[in-house]
Amino acid sequence: MKTIFEKSVPGKCAISLAPCDVPAYDLDASLLRETPLNLPEVSEVEVVRHYTALSKRAYGVDDGFYPLGSCTMKYNPKLNEEVAALPGFTGIHPLQCECTVQGALKAMHTLSRKLAAITGMDEVTLQPAAGAHGEYTALQLIRAYHLDRGDTGRDKIIVPDSAHGTNPASAAMNGYTVVNIPSAADGCVDLDALRSAVGPDTAALMLTNPNTVGIFDKNIAKIAQIVHDAGGLLYYDGANLNAIMGTIRPGDMGYDVVHLNLHKTFSTPHGGGGPGSGPVGCKAALAKYLPGPVVTEKDGKYHLTSVGGKSIGCVKTFYGNFLVMLRALAYIEVLGKEGIKLASQLAVLNANYMMARLKDKFPTYSSDICMHEFVVSCDKIKEEIGVTALDFAKAMIDRGMHPPTIYFPLIVHEALMFEPTETESKETLDWACDTVLDLVAEAYKDPAAFKQHPRKMPIGRPDEVTAARKPVLIYKA
């Protein structure tokens, strides 16, 4: 497929502007470009056809099954989009007087209180722009909490070996030393290893529950006590909240601070570099350190209120990604308390159904009931015929299915991590399972041919190492 620049022909134009009906303004020469803009010259129909063709190469949740483990790629209800597109929301400016944006402030306040109720936290900030940004903000709260108490020696963050990669990255960005602890045989936190790791230098333990292998850590109360007894705090990575929302709350497990992914659990658009949202909730002891301002309510009026002198400061321009918040609020309001709980229950049911259908061909990491996601291994298949998890992922693309997460978590060799979410029907799950099992038969029949997938895509098997280490990011004619 040619680039839009390769389709350019001098003299073509996609628009016709009416003659200027106001006096021309002569800009100062210092403000003018010395060379013309390097823009393609194409007709309107060529612009439309080019970007329509590009859109057909993209794959999202509106196209088909998207079981990307740990990413919760659930369907985004179109009602949410309609709410976010209302002119009363899209036509406002963040610098308007509070009295003119009461509806927007009420929406933000309502969302923050509902997120606090769902997570068991006391206060919530909506500022962070994405999950990793929420991690960074939460760790800033943890730092501020310890420093404000004069506890300056807490410079270590404990992270399990099954954690998301952003956890140690966020800790390092905050200047902490990362202490990695191994998982026990059941995939949960090794309590003895945790006891050995905590001490007067422990700032926090970063832990999601259920964890990355899809198992709910039954020892969470003991984990919280071990960390708290050492003077540290417990941080909840909200990536896996979709498995438990409405059933159990991080705050009730002993967590002190939590980040959420509105673009995962609460069904706002996800991926492709678009806007996300990573609200952070905390217990009352950390509330004074939250980024400000926050939305408060008094006598039916809503205000942007300063947190105070101990705030970590603003972490995002203005108040966060507002339209993403609206989508999440619409999702919560439509489902209600019982609907939120049912959504997580269906996510768990779907994952267990799919795991039960696949486990005879793919050994599962754990024989226990999983939560919202599960991990299987292609290690045995690789040993027998040389076909890897990557090969299966490539083959799934040819069958019209987005592959699951592969090679993660690192504690599982040749891992495939499936998360079907609650929005998939039994018919879709059966099709997906039938497809994967059929691919197993195809792989054993002709391993060499199997490793040539995908054959139906515009791009087959690029040199991914070179592409990652030497990316070509600029078009050169």
Supply the CATH superfamily name of the largest domain: Type I PLP-dependent aspartate aminotransferase-like (Major domain)
Task: Walk across the major sheet and give the strand order.
Answer: 1-7-6-5-4-2-3
Tertiary shape? globular
- Helical segment tally? 16
CATH class bucket of the largest domain? Alpha Beta
Amount of beta strand: 5-15%
> What Rg do the Cα atoms give?
25 Å
**Overall tally of domains:** 2
Please name the CATH architecture of the largest domain: 3-Layer(aba) Sandwich
From the structure above, extract its key features.
477 residues; alpha/beta; Aspartate Aminotransferase, domain 2; Aspartate Aminotransferase, domain 1; 2 domains; 7-stranded mixed sheet; 3-stranded antiparallel sheet; 16 helices; 12 strands
Secondary structure: elements and pairs:
Elements: H1 44-55, H2 78-84, H3 87-90, H4 102-119, E1 123-125, H5 131-148, E2 156-160, H6 166-173, E3 177-181, H7 191-197, E4 202-207, H8 220-229, E5 233-237, H9 250-253, E6 257-259, E7 280-282, H10 284-287, E8 294-298, E9 301-305, H11 322-358, E10 374-377, H12 379-385, H13 389-398, E11 405-406, E12 415-418, H14 426-445, H15 447-450, H16 464-469
Parallel strand pairs: 2-3, 2-4, 4-5, 5-6
Antiparallel strand pairs: 1-7, 6-7, 8-9, 10-12, 11-12
Report on this model:
It is built from 16 helices and 12 strands. The radius of gyration is 25 Å and the shape is globular. It is of the alpha/beta class. It has 2 domains: 78-335, Aspartate Aminotransferase, domain 2, CATH 3.40.640.10; 343-467, Alpha-Beta Complex (Aspartate Aminotransferase, domain 1). 42% of the residues are buried.
